[in-house]
Amino acid sequence: MSQLAKLLELTAATSQDRDGEDEIVMSRVGGVQFFPTSGTVSMRQGSTTTLDIFVPIFGGDVQLALHEVDRGSGMPASLVGSVSLKPEEAGRGRIRKQFAGAGALYELTYVVN
Question: Quick one: which of 9, 96, 107, 106 has its CA closest to 52?
């Protein structure tokens, strides 16, 4: 049986960049970027972005990755971290998981139906 995870919010608890603003992208691990659909999203430390994204969970866990992109630096995107969305989380209400790494901490809030 398949479930859908609905991504609700992404909060920047700690930004990676010294100026307090990160350019971020989210994708399935090993997959195509889905947030934003193109480019990057700027997030400042302490800010929250409302999401309205559905992610199908078929036949097991789905791994999501968050990257911080340093535009114009010539450096590759830094992996902030990854989280696992699990079918058995269905019906548990709002779930919070952290992307932590590369000097940054982001919190993803979602539900699984």
Answer: 9
Answer whether 41's CB lies under 8 Å from 52's CB: no
pTM, two decimals, is 0.92
CA neighbor of 79 nearest in space, from 96, 56, 59, 104? 104
Can you tell me the distance from the alpha carbon of 84 to that of 69, in angstroms, rounded to the nearest whole number?
22
Q: What is the dihedral of CA 54, 55, 59, 60, to 10 degrees?
A: -120
The DSSP line for 48-95 is EEEEEEEEEE-SS-EEEEEEE--TTS-PPPEEEEEEEE-GGGTTS--E
Strand partners, 50: 9
Q: What is the chain's pLDDT, residue by residue, as a tens digit (113 residues)?
A: 679 999 999 999 999 988 889 999 999 998 999 999 999 999 999 999 999 999 999 888 999 999 999 876 666 789 999 999 999 999 999 999 999 998 999 999 999 99
